[in-house]
Design brief:
The complex is a heterodimer. By secondary structure, chain A is mainly alpha-helical. Chain A contains 11 helices and no strands. In chain A, helix 2 (34-43) crosses helix 3, helix 2 (34-43) crosses helix 7 and helix 10 crosses helix 11 (184-208). The two termini of chain A are 19 Å apart. Chain B is built from 6 helices and no strands. Classes of the chains: A mainly alpha, B mainly alpha. Chains A and B meet through helix 1, helix 2, helix 5, helix 7 and helix 8 of A and helix 1, helix 2, helix 3, helix 4 and helix 5 of B.
Chain lengths: 209, 136
């Protein structure tokens, strides 16, 4: 077991998380959300670029209208999108469409790679860097060992990945960014996943005792 | 290019912060969820409390799309909560623990990847008009 004293006090952690969120916004113009990056990376470079290209939109009037509506709503709010607004396609310059601040596939990869590297740096600074084949002793005692443990981890990861996408975000997207912006779905999602996490963990504990 | 480098730096700092908070430890997360240790909850709540005024000041610059709360929000969060409690990892944490050398994290990462890919299939087929809150 790691000595809990080796971790940061809560206030330093809060400052760190808030600082990272703000830095992410300053760099990208968007709020932080990690599961969204997974989604973009896994869509594949070509699919992502195709979806973002203006040519794709210009070839399809319906997609063009949908994209313009989404962009208008994003920039000016739902009130600005009148139901019968139909902008003449000819007056729209391609440049406006290309200037979307979507991150590229490679930028998402670099961001996730940075997390991986940062995990290594953190472990190094705490003297824990090195291959570890077992989880914490508590995991083995509560959840199981051997193949059961690997199966539980895989299925748990799947639930986390699928659930994050379905609910529109994970701990960073819904938890930090969404709650920070007081968005109702994010507040609901965060309250739900914390409550369910508590219930699940209490069940795991009760089962092991 | 500049954005890419800056984003890499932000990613590394994010990883260091998450690792040093202890969010990457199954035991620490389990202690949080079994209400034995308030530290991680306080860390998270403190960060949100700091971000609320910042995002309020930035409100004119942020996306004004108002995502709706639907059954997806709730069901997704339920699945996510079970997954997080079982593995002690969310999508960002699994990368942090893997970077620290944890081999079991590979199983979790494969699971997360499988889950995200599965959602892409499901969404394409059965759930059109996808609107996620954290689309960056």
């Amino acid at each position: 077991m790691t000595d809990p004293q080796s971790y940061w006090p809560w206030w330093l952690g809060s400052l760190g998380l808030a600082g990272v969120s703000i830095a992410f916004y300053l760099v990208t113009g968007r709020t932080l959300g990690v599961s969204g990056s997974y989604d973009r990376v896994l869509r594949g470079r070509r699919a992502l670029e195709a979806a973002d290209s203006a040519e794709h939109l210009l070839a399809d009037p319906a997609a063009m209208e949908a994209a313009l509506r989404a962009a208008t709503e994003e920039e000016f709010g739902a009130d600005a999108v009148a139901p019968q607004v139909a902008a003449p396609a000819r007056s729209i310059s391609t440049a406006v469409l290309v200037r979307k601040r979507w991150l590229t596939w490679m930028q998402h990869v670099v961001f996730l790679g940075g997390l991986l590297l940062g995990g290594g740096v953190s472990a190094l600074s705490r003297g824990e860097l090195g291959l570890r084949f077992c989880l914490d002793a508590e995991f083995g005692r509560y959840v199981g060992r051997g193949w059961i443990a690997w199966g539980v981890l895989f299925v748990g990861g799947m639930l986390a990945g699928f659930g994050a996408r379905l609910s529109g975000g994970c701990t960073s997207g819904n938890g930090l960014s969404g709650c920070g912006r007081l968005l109702l779905p994010s507040l609901v999602a965060t309250a739900t996943f914390f409550a369910v996490g508590i219930a699940t963990s209490l069940l795991i504990q009760a089962r092991a005792l | 290019m500049k954005v890419g480098v800056a984003l890499g730096v932000v990613g590394v700092v994010f990883g260091v912060v998450l690792g040093n908070i202890g969010f990457g430890s199954w035991e620490q997360v389990h202690r949080m969820f079994t209400l034995r240790d308030p530290r991680l909850i306080l860390t998270f709540a403190g960060a949100v409390a700091l971000l609320i005024p910042v995002y309020w000041l930035l409100r004119r610059r942020l996306s004004k799309a108002r995502p709706r709360t639907t059954w997806r929000t709730v069901i997704g969060a339920v699945l996510f909560g079970v997954g997080w409690a079982l593995t002690g990892a969310c999508p960002s944490i699994v990368l942090v623990t893997l970077g620290g050398g944890s081999v079991p994290a590979i199983a979790v990462l494969l699971g997360v990847v499988a889950g995200v890919l599965a959602y892409q299939r499901v969404q394409k087929r059965w759930l059109p008009d996808d609107s996620a809150a954290c689309d960056s």
